[in-house]
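Bug: token stream looks shifted between consecutive jobs. Job 1:
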Amino acid sequence: MGRLSDQVVETLRRAIIHNEYEPGSRLPTAEALSESLGVSRSVTRDALRTLQSLGLVEVRQGHGIFVSIPRDDAVTSALTVRMERSDLTIGQVLDARISLESSLAAEAARVGDEDAWRQMRGHLVAFEDAVKARDWPVAHREHLLFHLSIIKALRLPALELIIEPLQELIIVSSIPPNPDSAEQWGLGSHDRIVEALESGDPEAARTAVRDHFRYAESPAYVDYGKTLFREVKSRLGDDLTPTAG
């Protein structure tokens, strides 16, 4: 049966997952939970600590225990740390992105609509304007949204939820060796992706995405691609803004 606190964790976890306690709502006190579950306060406190580590509840000192509002922060953080502790290089991360994005683009070309492509072009224009203005936070955001708009075109909410934790990895692997170079940012190469998607040709879309990533084969990028993911992430800092040097 496992430890008593594990059983309490599972009972409360199930109640939270099934929205018996709404996100953001306040849970009963530890004392009230202990009484209703028929366990000691120490068992309940252990269970609440476990639920907090799982990101399901928040203990606000002096205010009580609250059900966490679902966010992808914890998953993103865990994935990023896992990547940083590995010996994966930026080039290997890009290889994974190419395989994933080219396949998704092929399907998006088949099912996407004009509204999806209009939003995609909006992000592309904003991205290119930001790069030209050297507004890196906006450039990162709009570049990310451009690539994520391929997924949005599929109209698969579950897939969007699965992909959300990958956003930081996409940003980190998108920074060119020289962030001041418009050419290394791939200005102009994104248009061919949109055009292929708009054509409704899956193979053209797959090829356009792969061609877009050809920059990874350029002399300027080859050595950079061998850089460990954790080194680039550390260089960028928490705000993912390129630093000098």
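Job 2, same session, no restart:
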Amino acid sequence: MPAVAAAGAPEVTRRGSQTAIPCLFMRGGTSRGPFFDARLLPEDPGVRDAVLLAAIGSPDARQIDGVGGAHPLTSKIGIVRPATGTTGVDLEWTFAQVQPAGDVVDTSSNCGNMLAAVLPFAIETGMITPTADHTTARVLTRNTGMVSEITVATPAGPSGARHVAYAGPARIDGVPGTAAPVEIGFLDTAGSVAGSLLPTGRVRDTLEVPGVGPVDVTLIDNGQPLAIVAAERLGATGYETPAEIDADDALRARVEALRLVCGAAMGLGDVTARNYPKMTLVAPPRHGGTLSTRSLIPRVCHQSIGVLAAVTAATACVLDGSVAHDVAAAVSGARPTVSVEHPSGEFAVTLARDPDDPRRITRSALLRTARLLMAGDVLVPRSVWDPVPTVQEKKPA
């Protein structure tokens, strides 16, 4: 286990008429966004959310007045702190999803891509002190209670001090070039949001969808609530580019109508304003993988596929009778590796199955990469949040 540093967090300061909050801007997997030390943000959730919206620049489709990237994949936020008492956990983090044009900060779901940057952030900010060439930490996702093990390379520099290695040979589809691997093991993630792996108790449901008719779906949650549907049933091939799907208003309307019905069937209530369930259109693989996917998040097509969406789609492939199983290439064994094809390439997930209950996945292992992109302060108007009066003024550089 790594050493957990006891040093206090750096200070929030003032810069003229604005509040300056220490922040690292990081890429995690195929997503990116600002990461904050939770101890530096307002304790009141409403004020905290106002700060996050101001920092990222929402609501505005271009997010021109903040650090967001005008797309759901680049409108994500990580909030990290040392563990607060949970046994066997080193770090806690909260994932926040913001839609560019929306005014809601959604902390109800998971993000496995941004998770890849949590341990690097903790090491960079002194929450974790590396003591070996590789550092492993257990991370609790506060959104859903999910626990994962993350391992990163932490070699010693010329002075002997250890640091996060970002350069390396690992390649993930959807990110240019190569980087150091970030190994993630998800531990028993079934029912992360919907309460069970199969919220309806069935591997396949037939739902009546307004304007579409009866649709066969697999409703499943192994880290991310997914509604899996055969692409051809909604008038697609499953091989479209994200741009083609985003430009097809009729297809997206059918997908959204189905999503609302699926949300209710999964016991999630009215999901109109929610970022889940994610919608996954599936088709037979074309490039030697197990399954072809097009994932909507939930109304814009993902350029690749989310980590936990890939884990959940992979899980559906090994469940006899599921919609994914119908079109997937055969997989077998107690530890099958499922290759999930997506618009930018493929995503390999290795599953560990309970020998006494093949429907129970005890561990999901995969590889991501991460990189620190920028370090400094995010500035928000003091009208949004003015820190305590004792904080000293920070003079402009």
